[in-house]
């Protein structure tokens, strides 16, 4: 049970990191499109 909770927390952190990375990449792409 404790192990499952730990993996859930790790997954949440990984998901947040992944999401913030996607948002950053999306902002870069939008900036590139606008500059063109």
Write the layout of secondary structure elements.
Blueprint: H1 2-35
Explain what you see.
This protein is an all-alpha fold and 36 residues long. The protein has one domain (1-36). The protein contains 1 helix and no strands. The mean pLDDT is 81.
Provide a concise account of the structure shown:
With 36 residues, the protein is mostly helical. It has one helix and no strands.
Number of strands: 0
As a percent range, the share of strand residues is: under 5%
- In total, the number of domains comes to 1
Continuous helix count:
1
Round the Cα radius of gyration to an integer and report it. 16 Å
Distance between the termini: 53 Å
Helix content: over 70%
Which term fits the overall shape?
rod-shaped
Order of helices and strands: H
Average pLDDT figure: 81
**Uncertain stretches:** none
Taking the sheet with the most strands, its summary is: none
What class do helices, strands and sheet pairing give?
mainly alpha
Throw out a few tags for this protein:
single chain; 36 residues; mainly alpha; 1 helix
